[in-house]
Amino acid sequence: MKKYNFGIVGATGAVGQQVLKVLEERNFPVAGLKPMASDRSAGKEVTFKGKPYKVIEATPEAFDGLDMVIFSAGTEVSRRLAPECAKRGAVVIDNSNAFRMNENVPLVVPEVNPEEVKKHNGIIANPNCSTIQMVVALKPLHDYAKIKRIVVSTYQAVSGTGLAAMEELKIQSKALLTGDEIKIEVYPHQIAFNVLPHIDVFDDMGYTKEEMKMVNETKKILNDYTIKVTATTVRVPVLIGHSESVNIETEKKITRSKAHELLSKAPGVILQDDPYNNVYPLPANVAGRNEVFVGRVREDYSIENGLNLWVVADNLRKGAAFNAVQIAELLIKYKIV
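Predicted structure:
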């Protein structure tokens, strides 16, 4: 089997660490590995297959000789360095918001629109974590009954913000339990034992950038710009695992039993829906898993063709690292690299 020279920009971050784990678990054909980060993190070590690798600074020259590079270091870094990486012959799989809505950049969820990778011009965008898990769950329903409208409310873990946010939640939780002073640094308010209806910056209409990502990315991934989408995104005191309450309106009726049938056969989906025995997806149970979990499936009796779903996934895995590695595997499958 052919092997590939692989790079990771943001290798020391929460998602970068998961990329290394997923590559190892999937036995990805890595010939050489080049972990990269900012100059502040250069010199640190990461481990892959039991071997330590020194992290180097991400510079244009560092991409020479690489076949594929996953970027997970933020929008600014991606805008500055991803085009340079692509110029040097590597295919970029970018986890930031930099290129997602660029009409020349495929936005790919392998269970939903795998063929899109063939259209790349050097850069492929990894969608937003909350969008990924939702469209994986909705794809089989949309194929069957065509979704007209989506109303989604998210309950997003602090790991979506990064390692510093995870540490802040731990420190604040301990301080609250011991009566110590609460320090607020990462978020505008206390996150421990609290809920913040605020992810990313607000626009002039009062929506956050995170909410509009879900609106716009969903339409692009499903390749249907007639779908009406509205979102409310919320940060909750959970370390790993995004949860979503999703309500859809479809052109024809989907019964609960039909939804079960469709979801139980859908790639990348695990149906956990036996509420009478307390069986439904929980973020505490999906951490470390690559699938999207769906439960609380029920018909919405307030409209003619409505359905409610509860969708949960590990945001660092399927929401970021695993989806990116799946894209890399598609590049190999379709002989693009």
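Summary: Residues 98 and 302 are 39 Å apart (CA to CA).
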